[in-house]
Amino acid sequence: MTMQERRPRDRGPKGRALDDAALAEVRTLLGTRERRRDLLIEFLHLIQDRYGCLSARHLRALAEDMRLAQAEVYEVATFYDHFDVVKEGETPPAPLTIRVCDSVSCMLAGAETLLTELEAVLDPAAIRLVRAPCMGRCAGAPAARIGDREVDGATAEGLVGMAAAGETGVQLPEYIGLDACRRSGGYQLLRKVRDGVLSTEGIIAMLGDAGLKGLGGAGFPTGKKWQIVRSYPGPRLMSINGDEGEPGTFKDRIYLERDPHRALEGALIAAHVVEAKRIYFYMRDEYPAVLAILRAEIAALEAAGIAAPGYIELRRGAGAYICGEESAMLESIEGRRGMPRHRPPYIAELGLFGRPTLNHNVETLWWIRDIVEKGPAWFAGLGKPGHPGIRSWSVSGRVKEPGVKLAPAGVTVCELIEDYCGGMAEGHEFKAYLPGGASGGILPAALGDIPLDFGGELAKQGSFVGSHAIVVFSQADNMKDVTLNLMEFFKHESCGKCTPCREGTEKMVTLLKEQGPLRETAIRDLEMVMRDSSICGLGQAAPNPVNHLLTHFRKDL
After folding, report:
1. What is the spatial order of strands in the sheet that 430-434 belongs to?
2. How far apart are CA 492 and CA 278, in angstroms?
3. Does the model's pTM come out above 0.90?
4. For residues 156 and 122, what is the distance between their CA atoms, to the nearest angstrom?
5. Whether the Cβ atoms of residue 115 and residue 130 lie closer than 8 Å to each other
6. What SS3 state is found at 126?
7. What element of type H or E holds 532?
C-alpha cells in the first residue's frame, strides 16, 4: 500500500467551525473599534465582561474578526488569570465570583478561615469562590472582591449579605477630580513646561539633584532615565506601570484613589520632556475602582484640551503578577502573553512597538510636580543623611495601624512600627519583616535597625527595599509557613517562559512541603540555579525568602 493510499479520507475542514451568531455578537460588541493586534486583550475583556466567560465559539469568532490564528487568541486568553476560557461541553463559571486574597498579609488575618466558612455556605452554582493572589488591600486584610466590589475586613456573613443584596458593582471612593485639582493649582506646571518657561534640561537636573529614583522596585535615577530615553532617535513612547502586584504593596492604589491628577500631570510632564508620542497607562485589573477613576479623569483631560484624544491610552491588565516586570508589561500592552524579554536591548532603546520607551511607576510620577515647584533641596532634605527623599511605605501585618506611611528614605522598620504605626498589635511582639514585599526576603527583628533604601546594608543581607512593601510578623507566626506562602505565590505567578523559574518555584514548594528535615543541599543547589539562570527578577528573587528562612529562622523549621 502506498503512502497516499494509507492517508485518511478528507472529512472536511479541520478545526473549530465558525458560528455565525457568535461572529455577529463579537462584531456588535467591538463596534467601530479599530481591529488592531495590540487591542486583543482589551477585546477579550469586552467579551468576558459581557458574557461572563470566553466561550470557544466567541474565541473562534474573535480570531476570525481580527484575522488572527485561533491558537494565537487562545494562548493569550489562557495566560491571564482573569479570563475564563470555556470549551465546548464545559460548564461556564457561576454568574457571580467572590475572590478571597490568600497572600501573606491576608493569611495572617485569617484568609484560610474565611475561605473555609464561605465554602460551607455558598452555592457553587450561583457563586464561584476563587483563591486570589495579592489584591493590593493588605492594610484591610483579609481582603476580598465580590463581583467588582472591593472589600476590606471581609467576613463570610458580610460577603453573603452583599451577594443577596446585589452589592457587587464598583464602589468609587471620594477623590480629587479635574476641576478641584485645577482650582488648587493643578496643571499650571505642565503649562509652564509646554510654554518653555521651564527647560527640559532644567527639569532633568532638578530630578537628579533631588535624588528621585524609580519607586516601583528598581530604584533607577529618574533624571538619568529621561536622558537615556531622549538620547535615542524618535518617535518615542511612554508607559506607566500600574501593575503593583508585589504582595504587601498598595501605595499606588491609595494615591490614584485620592488624587489621580498629581500622577497624571507628572506623566504629561515626563512625556513632554522625552517627546513621547503617546502614553500607555497599564493598570492592574484587581483595581476596578482605580480603572473607573482613570477612565473618567482621562476623558476629563481630553474634554478640557489638556490631553489630545487618545494621547493617554488606558490599558487593563488581566491578572498576571509578571506584568509588573517592565518588558512583560510591554508585551501585554502589545496584546500578547506577559513574558519578559531578554535584555539587552533595554526598553529605553527598543521598547513598546520597537520604539524607545520611558517607563515609570505611579509614585515616581506623583513626586515630579512637588519637586519642580518646591525645589530639589526640599525633596532631598526629607530623607535621612545619605538617603535623599521621602518614600511611601505600604505597611501591613502585625501592627496597630497599617496603611501607607510617608517616612524618610533610610527609615528603619523599628521606626516605622513605633513612630508611624502605633507599635505592634496588642499581644504581639516583633519577630520578623519583609522589607520589600515577597521578593525582598524575610529579615529578623534583630536586623530591624537597618536603613531601608536601595543598596547599602540591606543589599549586604541579601535583601532589597523593592516596592517599599513592609509586612511585619510576630511570635504568633511561623516563618516556614510564611516562606511557603510566598513560594506558592511565586509558583502560581511564574510566566513559564524559562525552565529555572517555572520548574524551580514548583520544586521549591515541593521541598518545603516534605515531611521531616529539609533537604538543605538540594534547596541550596536549586536556589543557585534559579538565581543564575532565570530570565527575569521573578525567578532570580524568588529564593530570597527560602535563603533567609535557612539563615535566620532555623527554630521554625
Report:
1. 403-408, 390-397, 469-474, 430-434, 443-444
2. 33
3. yes
4. 9
5. no
6. coil
7. helix 520-533
| Position 1 pLDDT exceeds 80 | no
pLDDT tens digits along 9-32? 555 445 789 999 999 999 999 999
Grid cell locating 125: 452554582
CA distance 394 to 212: 18
**From CA 230, how far away is CA 341, in angstroms rounded?**
22
d(CA 358, CA 153): 37
- Classify strands 236-242 and 469-474 as parallel, antiparallel or unpaired: unpaired
Average pLDDT rounded to a whole number, residues 315-324:
96
Q: How far is CA 260 from CA 180, 211, 329, 391, 467, in A?
A: 11, 23, 21, 18, 19
Give bridge partners of residue 391 from the DSSP assignment.
Answer: 407
- The tens digit of pLDDT for each residue in 48-68 reads 999 999 999 999 999 999 999
- For strand 96-101 and strand 85-86, is the pairing parallel, antiparallel, or unpaired? unpaired
**What is the chain's length?**
557
Q: What cell was used for 69?
A: 490564528
State mean pLDDT over 38-42.
98
Q: 114: which 3 cell numbers?
A: 474565611
